Amino acid sequence: MTKLRPVRDADLPGVAQIYAHYVETSVATFDETPPGVEEWRAKRAVIAGAGLPFLVVEDDGEVAGFAYAGPYRPKPAYRHTVEDTLYLAPGATGRGLGRVLLGEVIDRAARAGARQMVAVVADSGDPASLRLHTSFGFGEVGRLRSVGFKHGRWIDTVLLQRALE
């Protein structure tokens, strides 16, 4: 059974494990060292302190994915703009869980007072994240060329944005 809910402390090892998979095996994130549970606990505190959503999707009692809206930039003028992050466990892709997570993060971020959401997507050759965001009304607003170097190659990022009003 699938259940969507706010992240709990007990979920953080699962969140860390999912993210570590992408750090170690892909260019979806430009992190090169997976953050540990304590770093995830600190990130959760920042997100909660800003009144923003950090959600997990649970499948048969296991964390199958997570998503959150975090502050876009630390400068005060950006306070109404958030950036979304979404990752699914490798065995949980292709089942609509990303759609459930992103839809709820968008709704909750809007209710929290955010006016704009930005997505920064690594152009890894896999169009899944771009398709998902586009299906929710995100539009491409820019491309940063060769800004990341990971696993022996240069990677572009695609900047996407949508209004939350």
Automatic annotation (TrEMBL):
InterPro entries: Acyl_CoA_acyltransferase, GNAT_dom. It is an enzyme of class 2 (transferase). Keywords: Acyltransferase, Transferase. Signal peptide: none annotated. SUPFAM superfamilies: Acyl-CoA N-acyltransferases (Nat). One of its GO terms (molecular function) is phosphinothricin N-acetyltransferase activity. Coiled coil: none annotated. Residues 2-165 form the N-acetyltransferase domain. Its EC number is 2.3.1.183. PANTHER family: ACYLTRANSFERASE FABY-RELATED (PTHR43072:SF8), N-ACETYLTRANSFERASE (PTHR43072). This is Phosphinothricin acetyltransferase. It comes from Nonomuraea muscovyensis.
